[in-house]
Design goal:
By secondary structure, this protein is mainly alpha-helical. 57% of the residues lie in helices and 4% in strands.
Amino acid sequence: MLKKILPLFFLLFHATGSFAAADFTDEECTECHGVKGYSVPMGKHGEGRKRSLDINISAFHDSAHGKLKCVECHTGIKKLPHRGEKLKAVDCVTCHVESAKKKTDGRDWRGLRKARKKEKSELVINTERYTNSIHANTKVENNADCAACHTAHYVYKSTNPKASTYRENSPQMCGECHYKSLQEYKRSIHGAALKTPWKGDSATCSDCHSSHEITKKEGLTAHRIVTKNCGSCHKKEVASYMATTHGQLAWHGNKKVPRCVDCHRGHDTRAIDDPKSKVSDQNRLETCRECHEDAGPGIVSYKAHGNTNDFERYPAMYITGKFMIYIVVGVLIFFYSHSMLWFYREYKSRVFATSTRDSMTVRYRVKPEKKHSNVHFQRFAWYWRANHWLLVLSVMTLVFTGMAVMYADTNWAVAVVKAVGGPTVFGIIHRTAGVLFLLAIGGHGVLVLVRLLKDKNFKWFGPDSMLPRKKDWEDMKGQFLWFFGKGKPPRLDRFTYWEKFDYWAVYWGAFVIGTSGIVLWASPTLLRFMPGWVFNIASIAHGIEAFLAVTTLFVVHFFNNHFRPAKFPLDIVMFTGSWDLEEFKEERPEEYERLKASGELEKRLVAPPSKRAVIISHILGFTLLTIGISLLIMVLIGFSRSGLA
């Protein structure tokens, strides 16, 4: 046994001794590398350029790595001198990861992607970004490693003017590899401003491209990074660009729309009034025609960075935006207040009751119960319900696809567009849904109009008409008096004032969204003879009206028909087509008595829907409600980031 163990001890002792021998001191290393001018020839026979191997010891000790020993980075050295040894390349990435691991109580920082971002140090974050950048691609010959940018021995914080990565030093440093780009940059407004710092700060390479997130210049990630970084200086311009179809579709990867660099050039960016600028008055038409080849001269009136807050520069956009926003604010204030008051009053009247005892009024809680009978009233025919289904599905699809474009830079929008197959597929789905939506609205309108024109006895302002009438005004006043406890609830007829608002709001929305959508869709043709500012107006109207539709349909409409106490949790009349007779009598007393008196009520009484039909209706109803509320939440997330216009 001893004979077997002794050799192992010998090997262990020999290995330990070897490692200890390799732990050279810095003084031993600098005996050669500390000599100024120390170098080795790069040619086979000592000819040609020489590779410098000396370091400035003082400068090194002042750097971020000054406390490190030489052999902590240059591992694998077994002897001195080490001429002829094939040394391992310095592994900055692993070292940075390990140092972060030591600073975090031993947590495994190798799982960088799994670690929560807020727990990562700046060192780890930048390391992760670099490992995913194009500079870390080892397949690219002479690619930029860490030392190419930070130098090998004089690594300083990027805020230190002595650092090669200091923002004002970065053009020269990047230009070592990107010579052509550097020459273009020097001619640009950014480069010129850098030469004259007294005129103000200017953008350098790292400001636009970032330091560690460098990706392929034609890639989508590069576009997003550069666009975001442009916003660091040009906040209003980037915000207005992202509010246009150009910015929204480009963010999702559509290569047919212009990006910042397409109009302003990537490195040779010029002032707008510079004759060589692509967006100067002399060159703007030619620049626009790079994408819109058949566009007429009127395209130059398109405001690529227009907004709704500057009346002097963009009066048409200002007026349109403010008009649409005032409509949104007015409608939401009125109907959100209406819904909250309705909930309060209906909840109190259905959940609490009062009684008089010994000359005292006592208020107590009761459990509300829906009234049920064995007979139903037929409210909607099958074709109206089918039309409603077409309308619901098309609207929800339009919201899903349209808002993902309107709020393109939200995480959910990026994810869903990518999941569906990209902006092209998304656009096809959106336009298809738009056509179905207009068919549903137009078809309904034509059918109603034809039937009414055939009925010579139809009263256009009677109880069966969707046109507003005096009773609607009286009902609304009575409803508000009831809200505040000043009267009884109004006796409602077939169509209520809020149902008429829903009805005509859809037609208003169809007109605004439909017209503007068609203008934007047909822009390649219309640009031949229409001025460019028309498309600015269409884009504003399209987006704001869509936002209004979302915030009314998925809030007010859902409340009126499903979420108020009398209806909660769901009203299935639009699925089954019939209403419980007792519920009908309570909700529409005027219509009930009118139909009963005329004898029409008996003709419209039907058997209750089957249990199976009720279950299916509830499943479908809750599914649609869930989708609608989810869409509302996603839109509100986008609104909180970008607003309306």
